[in-house]
Every structure is written in structure tokens, then in C-alpha cells.
Amino acid sequence: MKVLGYLYEKEVDSKGGTWFRCYVPQGINHRMLERYKCDDGLWEMDMKIHDPKVISNKQQKLLYALFKDISLHTGYEVKELKELMKIEFMVDKDRDYFSLSNVEMRLQRNS
């Protein structure tokens, strides 16, 4: 994913919506951004917010590839193996149940 900008401020308006200000670094084609500019002077574009505290999609894919490789070797189904490994981790580290879709980096680093 290419980073085009960084959010640095947000403000909730009276209607419950949220306004963001962002910084677009030098080196980004600013003329390209002009095509997203609306008549009211604002820009309209898709925005994806990445939480750096949560494991990335790439890391999730790596985990599932490892589960697949281990399942081929052991004969367990991928889902079954994933749950067994999570349970082993939770017991070993005295942790609560967690989902790999939103597990925080801290959970792994402290293990």
C-alpha cells in the first residue's frame, strides 16, 4: 500500500460527522490529487485507516500460510490447527481468547 498522506487532526462536527486534516508529503504528485477536488474546494477520495498496533494483512497471510504448511504435515484441518495453536498460546501465556483479524502487535511481542 502506498502512503499518500498522514492524518494529523480530527474534529467532530455538530451533525456527528468527522473532519480530518492531512499532510501530503513532498514527492507525491499533487496534480494527481486535483482530480479529486470538488466544486466546494474539498477533496473527495477513498481513505483507508491503518492501525499500526494491529497485525497487517501481510502478517495474517503469512500466519495462514504457516497454518496450511503445518496442516499438510500433521493432517489437521487448517481451522482446527489454528484454534489448537491459539489455545496452546493462550494457556502458555495466560491470555484471553483473541482473533487473528484484529490481534494487537503487543500480544505477540510480549510473548
Question: What distinguishing features does this structure have?
Answer:
111 residues; two-stranded antiparallel ribbon; elongated
User: What assembly state would you assign to the polypeptide chains in this entry?
Assistant: single chain
Largest beta sheet, briefly? Answer: 2 strands, antiparallel
Strand content: 5-15%
Going by helix content, strand content and strand pairing, the class is alpha+beta
For the termini, the CA-CA separation is 28 Å
Q: Into which percent range does the helicity of residues fall? A: 25-40%
Task: Estimate the mean pLDDT confidence.
Answer: 81
Shape: elongated
- The total of beta strands comes to 2
User: What letter string, H or E per element, gives the SSE order?
Assistant: EEHHHH
Uncertain runs: none
Q: Major sheet: order of its strands? A: 1-2
Count of helix runs: 4
Rg, Cα atoms, Å? 21 Å
Structure, explained:
The chain is built from 4 helices and 2 strands. It is of the alpha+beta class. 1% of the residues are buried. The mean pLDDT is 81.
List the helices and strands and how they pair.
Blueprint: E1 6-12, E2 18-23, H1 30-33, H2 57-74, H3 78-93, H4 105-109
Antiparallel strand pairs: 1-2
Helix pairs in contact: 2-3
Briefly say what this structure is.
The chain is of the alpha+beta class and 111 residues long. Helices cover 39% and strands 12% of the residues.
